[in-house]
Fold this protein.
Amino acid sequence: MYSEELSGDIAAPRPVPMARTITATAATFIVPGLGHALLGKVARGAIIGGVIIVMFALGFAMEGHLYKPDPNEWLTWFFSFLNAGMGLPYLVCVLADWGVQITPGQAAKVTFEYGNTFLCVAGALNMLAAMDAYDIGIGRKS
Amino acid sequence: MTHFTALVLFSLLVSVAFATLSSEHHTTQEKVKYGAKVFGYFVGVGFLIAWALYRLPI
């Protein structure tokens, strides 16, 4: 890869100012994909943001629910961490109590656990997207 | 929604995300190839695990 960069086949990534990098990383936690768009990677941001938003919406459509940390159940801390990777959408849902409570009918649905998985993975992918935006910002990735 | 539809949807979305975020695949062609490979692995391993669980007397 480095020989290709030196020969000019692949342009070496150029870092952007640190303030813009941090803004882009934080923006990913407000709207998935926004950070990439702020760094000029609009198509990449649209794809990754679209995938994450669709996964989050499908999680709710499948009757999944968001986790809140419960001191008596340590596993909820792990799932809450994954859910919290969505950033602002997770915070809004938890504060407004949308999709947090579970009804017995909801838990009995076949797709209930799939929904939970979709919601957790959407948060995990958003964290990866934020790290990707940071790496682009500091010039580690192009 | 069936279990299979959920598996395919999950595999599709995650493989697109992985291909987009990959730092080792630079061109669109490389990314599409990598995404297709990841998708195939997800569905294939899903089938294998389902088959193994179906055989288990539980």
